[in-house]
Structures are given as structure tokens and as C-alpha cells.
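Course assignment 3, question 2. Fill in each field.
Student: A.L.
Task: Predict the tertiary structure for the chain below.
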Amino acid sequence: MTSSGNSSATAGRDAGPDSGAPQAGAPQAGAAEPGAGATDGGVTDARAVGSGVRLHASAPGWAMDADVVVVGSGVAGLTVALRCAAAGASVTVVTKARLDDGSTRWAQGGIAAALGEGDTPEQHQHDTLVAGAGLCDEHAVRALVTEGPGAVHRLIATGARFDSDTDTGQILLTREGGHHRSRIAHAGGDATGAEISRALVDAVRAAGSAPSPASSSAPAGDPATPTAASQGRIEIIENALVLDLLTDAKGCAAGVTLHVMGEGQRDGVGAVRARTVVLATGGMGQVFSATTNPAVSTGDGVALALRAGAEVSDLEFVQFHPTVLWLGSDAEGQQPLVSEAVRGEGAYLVDDEGTRFMVGQHELAELAPRDIVAKGIMRRMQERGAEHMYLEARHFGATMWERRFPTILAACRAHGIDPVTEPIPVAPAAHYASGGVRTDLRGRTTVPGLYACGEVACTGVHGANRLASNSLLEGLVFAERIAADIATLDATDPHRDPNDRSPSLNDPSLRPNDRFPSPNDRSPSPNSRAPIGSGQAALGEASDHDALGQPGGPAPATPLLAPEARFAVQRIMTLGAGVLRSAETLRRAAEQLDRIHQDAAQALEADGKTAEPGVETWEATNLLLVARVLVAAALRREETRGCHWRDDCPAQDDEVWGRHLLVALRPDRSLAVRTTQTPAFPPVRRGPAESLSANPPPSQAPSAASSAVSATSAGTAGAAGAVECSPILPTQEP
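Answer field:
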């Protein structure tokens, strides 16, 4: 699945951590992180941190088995599901809304790849690195740009239809911010995400109705078009919020708990047992009051990973899209996006007097990287005392608007703005999380058996600022890499029992907080449900229910927040950690977020009450956790870089801050924070079966800086550990 040209990149990133001695002024191993105080007197490797706290929820009432469980139904999640099924695996896709309601369908502009004549992966790599402001992992970027064109063609083979020249059939390409060439493939004019989602959803639904594999031998062929003999089955669980990771005694992923919102055979809290879990939950834009993200983007994947003991990185780098339709100063929730492709086709920014203000600020003017354009808009707004700027595109004419940007035209007109006859009021709004759950080049997190891809992941591709239209490509490329790694690890595992798909949830190898009573469990066949009789949950003294503070168990370490706390968190984040930040605003935000948590904790301690478990309370609790980590990281990074803009530290400081912050949760709800030595990520330590053991040689031992910061919740699974945990999959290579 990967080309030979990528093997060196993989080796460079996976074989060792960043190299070179720390530069003068850089955070040192064993020293406190800048802006943080060490409390334990020594270095804590955040990857070794884990605990047993989960979201407060009732005991699962049903269970099912799969080889792989994928959480999310955007381009990343559905691609992983299809590729794993093509290798013969049974896959369960869990999605928070309907299968076609993922964030992918909201993507307007397109997908970037070196597809045009004269364009090369090297040129794409250059533009990506420039946009990333010195923090991209070059090995990850190289993998993205070299494998990108092939991945796009495989997407087309899956059924995606991009806009093409009616005479030649060639894919039409446009240009967006930060790109020096036209390399953005689009569909439906400005409905690229919707078309990609349609094609992948159709393919997944087809795989879900396909017969089970008739043979364990996989015929040769393209994994994108598997035969019935090699095709695994995909089962879909819609309208389900994932809660927490199940882990075994060795800290390896063993499935997920989830809550299905609805009625039917699977209703309420349940579990999917699987040796491999892939997070593809999308972003966390709802942590701010105004965002282009849908309402479901509440950071659930990042929060789950943190509670599971995984490392996250670069959460401070939230990209604010510069041209979001301005709906008023009090507008909240999802806001309409005005794609960068509009500027790529010749639209330009003006102030209230009609003056262009990006000319002279950057060689690409309105097509500069997004962070630069967003800052330019904010500066001009400050100078003019205005709440928004304008995007001028009246010169397009009605025909071009209707043909090239029908979705944006309809959205503007729905809000009383006609781009054909008037300029569009725009302002920056939260759009994309460049950071997330840290992974290596194979999508592996620091928790064995747990993978992440798409916006929830931090692969190192985006650095401090994502290049326009690289997000869909990253989801596609790294999803394929994950599927290939899952199959390869399984094929090389000599201890795998092909009949052993996942442990029973009463298996003593599962961590106590991960078990729930299942007296009717008869080791069901894959994809079958194991309902638990009503009233049985009260029998299990080791159940999630008891472990999280119900009668008979200890009080939960993290109280749930009332639904209305969501709006308080959003307002705090918008004012304190938005486009413009400073030590003062960030400290105020940190104090206010901590007060929300402390008030809930004190109420729980005083009368034993917490908010009623439910989707809205779980979402609010996840948002608070993600917000506190984001603010902590933003407060520590005392510089301006990419989409992290500190008013009090306006310069980019490569000597001190040309590195990543890696964060994990300690059992005491503090944050374990360390830094890399260079923009390259250190390797993910997985176990003795791989080249990096729990005790790497000094040349491979990463520098670490430890600090303690109050946080909302602690993790559930060991983040690293010298254990060997191979995912269970059929032995065919994809």
C-alpha cells in the first residue's frame, strides 16, 4: 500500500526521536516547562502515565465484537473501515450522528495533491512546510505529498467524482491560500466534501451488505476494489457517542464504551470489544462560540484519548479561518464558511472604505497562508474599530457564482447577502485543530492498539498552521497507512489465535474499570450482540457503574457538567484563547475554566450529586477537558507562531520554541508536559517486539520537561509500557 519512496521517511520518523542537543534557552530535560512548575522533582515521561477515571455512565447493557472499531465517519474513518474490510477484517463504525453527517461533508474547497502538469510532491511539500511555520514533521509531510496523488486516484476508484474538463476529462484544479500552484481538486464546484462523503458512505454501506468472507486467502488485487472472498463485513452504529476506551491488563486497547441515542436493539450504554480502536472523531471547534464546525465537533476523541493516557500535542494551534460569513457580534454555533477557493478564483479583501489591505503584507496577498490572512483581517478590524471586513467578488458575475460556488451563494443569500451585487461581510472563526492525539507515521498513538487519524490526530503534517485543503488528504493518506499497519502487525504476530477476536468484558485481563457484569455472555460470534439482562448491572462490583460513583463504589474523580456549562466554556475560550491571546487573557481563561470544574467537584463532594449522565453533559465535560489543555499549552508557548498569536510575545522564537509540547493526564488530574527537541516527534514506544524498548539507548531517549497543572480528568489506560499488543486481524495483506 505504501510506495518504496516512503520507506525512508517512515524509518526516519519511527526509528528515533528528534536529534541534536537542546539549543540555548530551550526547556531542558528534568527542568520545569516554561510557565509551569514541576511538582515531583523529576522528569515524568508522559507516555507512562495512566489512571482509572472515566466519564460517569451507567453500566453497558449490551456488547458486540469486531476486529476493528472505527470511531467517526468522515474521510479518515470511512477510509480506514474500507481498507480494513478489504483485508478481510470485521469492522464496526461508530458515528455520533448519521453516517453521512461527519465533518467531511462540510469541506468546500477541495483536496490538495500534486496532480497537475508541472506540479511535483516537492513543490507541495515546500508550501506545506512554509505554512506550518517551522513545526511540521518533514517525514510526515513527505509521506503526505508523495502518497497523496495515488490516494486521490484510489478515492476516485471508490466512486468519488471530481470536476473535470468536459473535453479532455482532466481533473480541474484551482488554487488556494499558501499554494504556489493550482493543485486543489474540487467537486460540485464548492461541494467537495459532500461528494467525497457520498462516495465513501456508498462504499461502506455496500460493504456492510456484502457476504462474510468465504475464504481466509486474499486474492491479489487493488485493496480499493476487493472481491467477495476477501471482503470483511462493516457494521454501522449511528447516533452513538463514544465514551471511553476499554483496555486490558497490559494497557492495550480492547474496545470502547458508547451510548446509542435512540431506541431499538442497541439502545443506551453498550460496548464494542475489539483489539484495535481507530479514533477518527474530527475536531473540537465547538470549544469556541463561533466555528465552522458542526455541533457534533466537541473534542470527544481528544478527551477520550487523554483519559486513556495517550499523549496529545499542539492543541494551542487552532486555525481560525479568515473568511467566515459574519452573522453579527452575538452569533454562536456553526457559521457558514466562505471557502478560500473564492479568493483562489480572484476575490479580494477590502475594509469598510473599499481599500485592499493584504497587498504588501505578503507576496501572495489574499492567498497567503490562513494564519497570515486571519491576522491581517484582525489588525485591520482593530485599526478601523470594525467587527468585520469584506470579501469583494462582485466581478465574478451571476453565472460564475452559480456554476463555481453554488453552495456558498445559497448560504449567503439565505442570510440576506447577495455576493453578486454586494461584498460579503467576513471575519475569522475557529475552523481546524492542527494539533490532536499524537501519532507516528503509522497512525499509532502512545496507547497500544489505539490509532488516530484525521483532525483528531496530530501526525506532524500541519505544524503550527495547516495548509489549505491538506486536511482531506491527510485523512485519506494516514487512514490507508493505519489499515496497512494493522494488517501487517497481525500478519507478523506468531502468537495470534485466529479464533480469538476480543476478550469477554468479564475477562480478568481487562482493567477493573473496564469490566461490566455479563452473566449471559457466551462468547458471541463477531458482530453479534450480547444483551445484558436488566437488573444484572447491580450485581457487578467491578462494573463501570460502580467504579464511577454509583452506590457501592467510590465517588467519581471527575463530576459531569450541566449542559449549560458548554456555553460558559465557549464564551471563556472565545474571549481568552481566540485569535488574539496574551498571558493575561489566557490566565483569566484558565482560572475561569478551573472554577467551573471546582464548583462541580465541590457540589459532588458536598451532597454526592453530579449532573445526570447524558449526551449533553458528556459533551460539556469533554469540552472543558479539551479547553483546559488547550489553554495550558497556549499559556506555555510564549511566542507567536502560525495560528497561535500572542499579543504579549509577538515574535517567533525558533531557538526556544522550535519544538512541540506533548501533554498527557496524570492520575492526580495534573498535566504531564514535556517538549521535543526539534520539530520532529519522538517515536511511539510500543513494546519489546519493536526496535524501541521501554529503555531506549541514550541516543534515543527523548528530552522531557515535567510540569503539573490542574486538569479536569485523569486517564484510564497505561500510555506506554513495555508490552506487546498486536491487533487481531485476518492474516491477508491489504
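Instructor remarks: Confidence is low (pLDDT under 50) at residues 1-51, 210-230, 494-557, 687-734. The longest strand covers residues 424-433.
Grade: pending
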